[in-house]
Amino acid sequence: MEILGISGSHRKGNSEILVKKALEVCREKGYKSEFISLAGLDIGYYGSEKNDIESILDAMVRAEAIIIGSPTYFASVSGKLKSLFDWSLLLRKGYKLSGKLGGAIAVGGSRNGGQEFVTMQIHNWMLLHEMIVVSDKNTAHFGGIAVGKNPGDVLKDDIGIKTVENLAVNIIEALERRQ
Ligand SMILES: Cc1cc2nc3c(=O)[nH]c(=O)nc-3n(C[C@H](O)[C@H](O)[C@H](O)COP(=O)(O)O)c2cc1C
Q1: How many CB atoms lie within 10 A of CB 178?
Q2: Nearest C-alpha to atom 29 of ligand 1 is from which residue?
């Protein structure tokens, strides 16, 4: 079973660090993982040239669980991630993501910068695909929520890292309950 992690940032920054941290926990529990960063990929917008989008959609269909991390931009997901969400309309025909587990990670430069709204947007996207939304084990809120401005800052946010690890733990436990 494969767990896919997607970083929705345009740069190799905090979202990438956090998504990779979640995947590391999944691998420690014996699961395969795949990581996709939208940084450097040509996503365009729904209806534009497809370019890099098809391989990402294929990876989503292959995965058993999908963990999505995004920077908080004006209390919303990044524009790049929103474009990916729009493109995923192509998977809604036939509900190709139906029943997959999903978890959200958000990072923002401020303590109360809108990370919870970002996780909610990611969760809404998952719900519209008939996915099953998973929270973080024990800390049990909205998934991984961290604070950091410059790349690497999140490594100092112990509580944020813990929520990311706990999200991965809950996804693994949910996968195991289904077997
Ligand atoms: C255009 C823009 C808007 C931002 N808006 C917010 C915001 O609303 N709340 C917040 O806490 N941080 C905000 N930030 C800070 C980023 O969320 C923060 O730098 C984060 O670590 C970026 O993630 P990344 O390193 O994965 O790119 C914003 C940054 C940019 C560039």
Answers
A1: 10
A2: 73
Q: For residue 52, what are its two tokens?
A: 């890099």
Superfamily for 2-178? Answer: Flavodoxin domain (3.40.50.360)
**How far, in Å, CA of 147 to CA of 81, rounded?**
19
> For atom 3 of ligand 1, which residue has the closest CA?
73
The number of beta carbons lying within 10 Å of the beta carbon of residue 107 is 31
Residue closest via CA to ligand 1's atom 6 equals 73
Which residues line the pocket of ligand 1, CB cutoff 6 A?
9, 11, 13-15, 71-75, 107-110, 113-114, 148-149, 151
Per residue in 83-138, pLDDT (tens digit) is 999 999 999 999 999 999 999 999 999 999 999 999 999 999 999 999 999 999 99
Residue showing tokens 């303590």: 111
Query: By alpha-carbon position, which residue is closest to atom 31 of ligand 1?
Result: 73
- Identify the helix (H) or strand (E) that includes residue 62: helix 53-62
Tell me the CA–centroid distance for residue 173 and ligand 1, in Å.
31
* Probe target for ligand 1 pocket from 70, 73, 122, 147, with the most ligand atoms within 8 Å of CB: 73
- pTM recorded for the entire structure: 0.98
| Domain chopping of the chain, boundaries | 2-178
Radius of gyration of the chain (CA): 15
